[in-house]
Structure formats: structure tokens, C-alpha cells
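quick one, 182 residues, struct below
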Amino acid sequence: MASGAYTPTRVRYDLLLQSMVPGTPFDGARLESLLVARGAKALPGGGHAWHLEQGSVEVHPLREGGQWVATEVRVPLSDRDTLVREVVSQAAELAKEAEVRLFDPQLGRELSAHDAQVVADQYQRTARYASEMLGLASAMPMPSATENQGFQPTTRWVLTVLGFFFVLYLVVNWMGGQLNGE
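---
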């Protein structure tokens, strides 16, 4: 096993096209032919690029123990959810035609075309998390370092305390000078 830390090159939101009954054989060839009929183009490294109106998604076979058990639909993360909404709608149609089910592993449930809003909400949470925790600006734009964000609360508190003691020092010095007749 490699000792280096894993760094994801592309963070995405995955949906699965799988057999209606988990554990039963999956007819990936039929699904692949339907994808090609819908304009999907083969990728050099395997899988397909499915070009939709709102953008492109990657579609790859998911294998376990050498068996093709499902097909992954990989939606790139973005600050907009229009692509994932279109993917849910189109993939639900494709699933119906291929007699498979569309499944969202993040939500843990089967999807239909009517679930676009639920998936879009989860997609936005995932994109926000990727942006905040992994620092992926492509997932959700973050404020740039050049934007003025003001002082942090701790810094503001320390400066207030220092200012208070400085003013206190000036007042005590002035009062001492007044008492000594300066």
C-alpha cells in the first residue's frame, strides 16, 4: 500500500444505475448501447462522456470482484445545480428504458425524475463541503484572499484590550502629572 496521502483530483457527485433487484445480474451492455444512442462518446481511459444541455458527465462501469454490478454517473461539483437536475431527469428516463434503477448512494434511496430537488439539495451540501473542507474552488466559489473580510473576533478582542490599557496608561500618566504639578 502506498504511504502517501490520497489527494482527489476530481471530486464529484455519483449516481448509480443498477439492476432492479440488488444482487441479480446487471445488463451493462444494454445500458451502454442506450447511452451511445443518446449521444455518449467513448473516453480513451474507458467509460463514456455523456453530453447534456447543461454540461457533460462521465459514465463508467462499476465492477466488484470482476463482475459489472452497476454503472456510475459522475457529476462534477459546481456552484450551480442545473447539471445534476438534468442528469437526474435524463438518467431516470434511461433507467426506465433500460429496466434498471437509478440509485443515489448519498441519499441511500432509489430515484425517479421527480426527485431532482432532493438530489439538488444534497448536491449543494456536497459541493459546499468540498469547497470548505477540501478547498476546491471549482465546487463552490470561496472569497478570494484579496477581499476585505475584516479582523477575526480574537484579533478584534486583543486589539480592544490593548487599546484599553493604552488609554488607561495615558490617563494615569496625565493624572500623575496633574498631581505632581507638571
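DSSP finds four helices and seven strands in the chain.
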